[in-house]
Design brief:
By secondary structure, the chain is an alpha+beta fold. Helices cover 45% and strands 17% of the residues. It has a 4-stranded antiparallel sheet.
Length: 378
């Protein structure tokens, strides 16, 4: 976390009134400096209702008091009776601090206004004995092991995931459905078998709910789906290609055309993921950010997430410490898969949007030799 200096306004106990608003504004005017930082607004009962950031905190806070009634800013400040702010070394540090505070405190107004990740579709791999692939908007809930994405076009991604589920026999039923694997059958005395659903009958699902496959068999198909999304296993495409050729040889042209469309949807999905993965790997470097009053920082960013932060080195000893830290941060394989853990998605999106908005900032970055190697192999 960035080093911060904290100021706390007077602690008002009564609900917001015009007089209190005036007092809060006077307090900001008197004490707040115009420099980067984060702020939080607290209601009379101590609830943090909103967290924000700005590269000029004083200007930003005063703007709330000029909002017309009904505007978002007016609604927020009228719920608050207390404003706290903390200075950060730079706007970049303020962005990171804001994100981390929102994740930790989940203020009501931030949650209601959160939009970023919801622009994108993600493929979520659920936890549990028979994992499912689900398409969701936004990411960040902790009920998944990994997310794949972000992808554009939720509907196309949905169709492609349906094809992938069908091709590999993965389930798509509700999370409350009980699973009975073949190697657990004796526990549940499933004889004769209880019916699965139509997908099992038409061989689109392995039937983990009706003891038609073992836990290992099903887990193997999930691994295959993940390997496909990561671009290292083509078997789902090969199977469809074989079926398409066979249909066309049997002159079943309608079926062959439908299989061709399925193939194309799956190929598009996988290409999108490979492009995304490459983009993530390119977000691996040391990033030096000039700070307020010389408080310059170096961020060690690997795969789109800040792994460490240090004051910019000022001596040979500092530089040597930083090199040792970088060797540590950039060495080793991080995850088995190329997906992104759910708790890291928001930071990844924040960093990629930062460097998209300010491409000149990339000139302040330096790629570590290990990151360069990992990027080449992505
Ligand atoms: S066969 Fe069973 S596990 Fe598969 S989708 Fe149908 S209900 Fe779910």
């Amino acid at each position: 976390m960035p080093r911060v200096r904290r100021n706390v306004s007077a602690d008002f106990r009564q609900p917001t009134s015009e007089a209190q608003l005036a007092a809060m504004r006077a307090d900001v005017r008197a004490r707040c400096e115009d420099r980067p930082g984060v702020y939080r607004m607290t209601s009379p009962d101590g609830e943090i209702v909103y967290v924000g950031k700005s590269k000029r905190v004083r200007t930003r806070l005063l703007s709330y008091f000029r909002c017309a009634p009904g505007e978002k800013g007016a609604r927020i400040v009228r719920e608050a009776t207390n404003i706290e702010w903390e200075y950060t070394p730079s706007e970049f540090a303020a962005l990171l601090a804001e994100l981390r505070l929102i994740k930790k405190l989940r203020p009501r107004f931030n949650v209601a206004m959160k939009r970023d990740a919801r622009h994108f579709a993600f493929i979520k791999v659920t936890r549990g004995p028979a994992n499912k692939l689900l398409v969701v908007r936004g990411a960040g809930d902790e009920s998944a092991d990994f997310y794949y994405g972000p992808y554009h076009g939720a509907q196309r991604v949905n169709e492609a995931v349906r094809e992938l589920n069908d091709a590999l026999g993965l389930r798509d039923c509700g999370s409350d459905r009980k699973m009975h694997f073949a190697d657990q059958a004796e526990l549940f005395q499933l004889s004769p078998r209880t019916p699965g659903c139509i997908r099992y009958e038409i061989r689109k699902c392995l039937g983990p709910c009706v003891a038609a496959c073992t836990l290992d068999e099903y887990a193997g198909r999930v691994r295959m789906a993940r390997a496909f999304l990561e671009g290292v296993d083509d078997s789902p495409l090969d199977g469809l290609r074989r079926e398409m050729l066979a249909s066309s040889e049997r002159m079943e042209f309608e079926r062959a055309a439908s299989l061709r469309d399925k193939l194309s949807r799956l190929e598009t999905l996988r290409e999108q993921f490979i492009r995304f993965r490459f983009a993530v790997e390119t977000l691996s470097f040391l990033y030096e950010v000039p700070g307020h009053a010389g408080d310059d920082r170096v961020y060690l960013i690997r795969r789109g997430r800040v792994r460490a932060e240090r004051p910019a080195p000022k001596s040979a000893a500092d530089r040597s410490d930083l090199r040792a830290l970088a060797d540590d941060v950039f060495s080793g394989v991080e995850y088995e898969g190329a997906g992104v853990p759910s708790h890291e998605i928001d930071e990844l999106l924040l960093l990629s949007s930062w460097f998209r908005r300010f491409p000149a900032e990339l000139e302040r970055t330096e790629t570590h030799k290990l990151a360069r190697r990992q990027r080449r192999s992505a």
